[in-house]
Sequence to fold (213 residues):
Amino acid sequence: MGMDSFAPYLKINGCFVVLNTSPQVKTINIFQYPINYGQTRDLLMIPGVAEQDIRASLLKGELNHKIRAKDIIVICSDIDLLQFNMAQKTFLQNAGVVNGLEIISGLTPAEHQTLRQLIHFIDQGPGDGFASGAYKEILPNGSPFPTSMTWYLDAGKTQKLVEKLVTYNANQVPTTIVWNMYDEDGATIIHTVTDTIVYTNNVFESNRTRSIS
Fold:
């Protein structure tokens, strides 16, 4: 089973290859390009077609329609499809998609979402997915060099959401910054981001290394 004569070359990075399995044994068209019966095409090789076009078409476009009509099955896919919900994920798995539905590193989509929320917290504080009324505490109180900044679920400080811990050098510039993201119980740390900072002339940041766990 090879690529059809319309696309006789191989893509080096990334694929979304479909096989024409039309019950009518006919040539079909996807993104206006033909695929003969029993032949395959890498849709990412079609000029002007990007991953976002394929994702949109899988949700409610011609790819969705042709999969449901059994005109095609997917035989190679490594594009990012994490935004699909469980029902859509099952639909794609039944269509032959096995990659791109979960984080390769071992994180589940839910864990990936909490990690993204933690990265958002670094700059913005609580946003999408969190109830209003979050409360921030900075310690030591009144210090120009705070070592702890913690977001709580509410002013009662019943549950931690995320905390920022800072270590300073003798020149009072941060050398290590740690962000901890807490689980729903407000006590269990589920993700940690650590920045280790290096300075030029002891005061001008030259580089930093970020580790995520």
